[in-house]
Amino acid sequence: MPLIMSLLQPLLADVAAESVNLAEAGPLILAAVLLSLVVIYFASKVGGEICARINFPPVLGELVGGVVVGISVLHLLVFSEGGTTEPSLLTTFIQQTAGMDGAVAAVVANTASEVISVLSEIGVMILLFEIGLESDLEGLLKVGPQAAVVAVVGVIAPFVAGTLGLVTLFHVDLVPAIFAGAALTATSIGITAKVLAEIQRLTSPEGQIIIGAAVLDDILGIIVLAVVASLAKTGTVEISNVIYLMISSVVFLVGSVVVGRLLSPFFLGMVDRLSTRGNLLVPSLIFAFVLGYIAVILQLEAILGAFTAGLVLGETEKRRELEEQILPIADMLVPVFFVCVGARTDISVLNPLEPANRAGLIIASFLVLVAIVGKVVTGATVFGQPGINRWAIGIGMVPRGEVGLIFAAVGSVSGVLSKALDAGIIVMVIVTTFVAPPLLRLVFKPGATEALPTSDVAVESPPEG
Amino acid sequence: MPLIMSLLQPLLADVAAESVNLAEAGPLILAAVLLSLVVIYFASKVGGEICARINFPPVLGELVGGVVVGISVLHLLVFSEGGTTEPSLLTTFIQQTAGMDGAVAAVVANTASEVISVLSEIGVMILLFEIGLESDLEGLLKVGPQAAVVAVVGVIAPFVAGTLGLVTLFHVDLVPAIFAGAALTATSIGITAKVLAEIQRLTSPEGQIIIGAAVLDDILGIIVLAVVASLAKTGTVEISNVIYLMISSVVFLVGSVVVGRLLSPFFLGMVDRLSTRGNLLVPSLIFAFVLGYIAVILQLEAILGAFTAGLVLGETEKRRELEEQILPIADMLVPVFFVCVGARTDISVLNPLEPANRAGLIIASFLVLVAIVGKVVTGATVFGQPGINRWAIGIGMVPRGEVGLIFAAVGSVSGVLSKALDAGIIVMVIVTTFVAPPLLRLVFKPGATEALPTSDVAVESPPEG
User: Fold this and answer.
1) DSSP state of B88
2) Which stretch of A272-276, B76-80, B192-196 has the lowest confidence by average pLDDT?
3) Which of A326, B73, B234, B295 has the fewest Cβ atoms nearer than 10 Å?
4) ipTM
5) Do B9 and A331 touch (CB under 8 A)?
6) How far apart are the first and last CA of chain B?
7) What CA–CA distance (Å, rounded) separates B333 from B351?
8) Quick check: B189 and B126 in contact, CB under 8 A?
9) How far apart (Å, rounded) are the C-alpha atoms in residues A405 and A435?
10) Which residue on chain B is closest to A336 by alpha carbon?
11) What is the pLDDT of residues A170-194, one digit of tens each?
12) How many residue pairs from chains A and B have C-beta atoms closer than 8 A?
């Protein structure tokens, strides 16, 4: 009932003027969000359980579950940025069960999809916060040089091979070729981190190198995107913006760790003096959200802030307690992210029966090859770590996830990418995202590395019950 | 970065056409939500801790913290339905740190405030789910007759006294008098339940009677609102709608408990077979959200669905485990609700120096008196329970919370209420909401009732650390 108060909402008033209808919209937005969450949870559990049964990583099942309920198949969960004008099945269902007219339904669907988007982003922040908590800062710093080499090679190799290949083999113009090459660079940290946690290799040397490289890769990806976006828009590269991004990301990462470590005794002292519920959790969330906010303002990603906050708090004596408390929150919010990634993925570009797709599929095969080989070679660059599983590190860097889709979206909107090239990038993102989790589990087969210490980490323990 | 994809958002496109600006809006919506949550958490912790120190219920501190950051004082958290056109301080801050223009800022602020609204409603659902888990269905059914009498008397007494008093003493017309009388009827279940949990009296006989009566009161309040809204709109009462609401609420409450109990062995069997993370939590959330959705579609409140889901699951052997898992989620989301209730409360109507407020304040004094006395007398109606704390039951029913504000909003929008009467209702809501928590703690002073069994309920244990 509180949302009935939104009948004065100016935003709603623009769309439909009749106040009686708007009085209905408030509770219906909540209803639409609840139903979307129910669909998301069903998809994540059905997909995750099936994958767990056939020994695939559950996160792959969440992604596939998202594809099934999303734009590609059932149309239950459709995000408005997909460019679709047809209402989702969910909207139609709510419209019929609640009896609202079209204008109200459009507002309800739009607002609910915006709320779910934000929830999914808070979900991936919670995931990265959890990963940060479990990561060992000392260990990450120790493998820092190796991770840096893996990250840099993993950006340069697919970028150069992709751009050159498109120009020489497919006679693509230089600017679109650079754009597509850039789309090959960024690892999706969320998917890799989730798989590593699922197969209990997050704290292994390989896991730490992959996480460190994926974090650096995320920053490099943002810089590459800034470069190619300004190239696409103005034909030249704004050097000042690139320098700004480089400096601000270094200052942010180093600064928040250093300042965070200085402030953590004060933080722990404060937590111990608090006497109300959430005395540890709420201040920790404040810390993570403040760093996330600063990251966004610096044009970085909110997940970098959340990861850094987790890293700093993971160094404190409250680590175990906080890990236990963040666990159910992650269980509630993280599936929203993975199902939404799947739901946004339009697999219709994979259909070879559609003649328009064929040019894209040929380019796609090339891009997929470059995308996988370009990352797998990074495993060979790891130095000074005898006996390390180099295949695992290379494959851990393969999934492109939603970051590659952003490149495709920006390129497509700016008019740089042809339809075939755009489809090729989307196929590359789909294949790398969906192929990496099972491959990663395969190369990390038991006995492939030295025995791991018995894990005391909450996320890695099997579920109770 | 994922939200950058919302650059194709049609809703945004309506407001500001330039696509460059819209590419900015996506991450900024997340930034605005994060900053709003930081403000909410600060307000809840500072307010809650101060109240805990001076032996007031922490939830009162969260409400007051919300008032401080909300529309009344700091303007950090402003909801667009308040009718204010000035941007919140938070929007200005984001605008300055992120450098966006006015049109984008308006979209960002509106969307973020909608997201926070939905989060606060999910927060109160989680609270009621938690309360349901801890409530004892057998115990609730045992005190059912007493709770029903308390609820009915607590609706009739203030309604009749308020309406008659306004007509005879203040010469108010009948329809507005009925409307204002109706605004006196509905107890705010969230505030009462939170205070009872905080003072560890949720499972006492008084606590069970109050919770049972508050749930019934919530339903009676919805029926009363439907009656007075149709009276205000058409001058007559749609009997069919009232009958529909009565039948659907009975069918919903009884039906979901009966069906839920029948299905719970199947539910537990399924939970035991799931092997991925969140195997208990996610199916429980699906259950709560489905019931919440059905409640909204039946024109009831989502919190009734969440409460019923908690009640049913609280009967199963998974109760303890689920209580532990829901605890951090409640700590994360419940404060959002209480701070938002405070932030929406405009205390400027309490200022007697403003001449326009004086007529409202005189009516308000009368309404406050009727509101408190009309609920406190309900304690006297409890039969067959020797030695029960009757004061506590009466005072537990006093807070009106946001439900009363909805009456004021609907009345004000429909043009039925004069400015003075509208202000009087708002003052009544503020006073009853803010006066009930400390009074409740006072009448529940140690030794006032028989000794309680040692609680094993998660929410009632003191915070760790």
Assistant:
1) P
2) B76-80
3) B234
4) 0.86
5) no
6) 36
7) 32
8) no
9) 16
10) B282
11) 999 888 898 889 889 988 888 888 8
12) 295
Q: What is the DSSP letter of A450?
A: S
- With residues binned 3-state (H G I as helix, E B as strand, rest as coil), the percentages for chain A, rounded to 5, are 75, 0, 25
- Report residue B328 as tokens: 């951090």
pLDDT at B20: 36
Residues 172-231 of A with CB under 8 A from B: 222, 225
B341-357 pLDDT per residue, tens: 888 888 887 788 888 78
Residue of B113, B129, B282 to mutate, interface with A, max A Cβ within 10 Å: B282
Checking if the pLDDT of B321 tops 80, the result is: yes
Angle (CA) B61-B63-B68 rounded to 5° is: 90
The answer to whether residues A321 and B464 touch, using CB atoms and an 8 Å cutoff, is: yes
Q: Decide: A159 and A339 in contact? Cβ < 8 Å.
A: no
Say how many CA atoms lie within 13 Å of B130 toward its Cβ. 29
Burial readout B404-435 (b: 16 or more C-beta within 10 A, e: otherwise): bbbbbbbbbbbebbbebbbbbbbbbbbbbbbb
How far is residue A169's CA from residue A176's CA, in Å, rounded to a whole number?
14
Burial of B356 from C-beta contacts in 10 A (0-12 / 13-18 / 19+): exposed
Mutate to test the interface with A, among B1, B94, B121, B326 (most CBs of A within 10 A): B1
Tell me whether residues A114 and B115 touch, CB distance under 8 A: yes
Q: What is the DSSP letter of B201?
A: -
Contact B425, B365 (CB under 8 A): no
Helix axes B19-53, B319-344, angle to 10 degrees: 100
A168 to chain B nearest CA, in Å?
31
Q: Scanning the structure block, which residue is given the tokens 């809204």?
A: B229
Q: Which two tokens stand for residue B188?
A: 């705010």
Report the C-alpha gap between A308 and A289 in whole angstroms: 11
- For B202, the token pair is 């949720």
> What is the rounded CA–CA span in Å between residue B79 and residue B404?
18
Distances (CA, A) of A159 to A154, A195, B283, B393: 9, 25, 43, 70
Q: Coil, helix or strand for A71?
A: coil
Token pair of A94 as six digits: 């709510």
Residues of B in contact with A35 (CB under 8 A): 289, 293
Q: What is the pLDDT of residues B242-299, one digit of tens each?
A: 888 889 888 998 999 999 999 999 999 999 999 999 999 999 999 999 999 999 888 8
Nearest to A337 by CA among A199, A131, A147, A151: A131
Domains of chain A with bracketed CATH: 2-118 (no CATH), 121-460 (1.20.1530.20)
- Percent of chain B at pLDDT > 90 equals 34
Q: Write the pLDDT tens digit of every residue in B35-53.
A: 999 999 999 999 999 988 9
Alpha-carbon dihedral sign for residues A131, A219, A252, A341: negative
3-state DSSP percent of chain B in helix, strand and coil, to 5? 75, 0, 25
B319-344 and A319-344 helices, crossing angle to 10°: 80
Q: Which residues contact A252 (CB under 8 A, 6 or more apart)?
A: A294, A295, A298, A300, A304, A305, A308
* pLDDT digit string, tens, across residues B107-146: 888 889 999 999 999 999 999 999 899 888 888 888 889 9
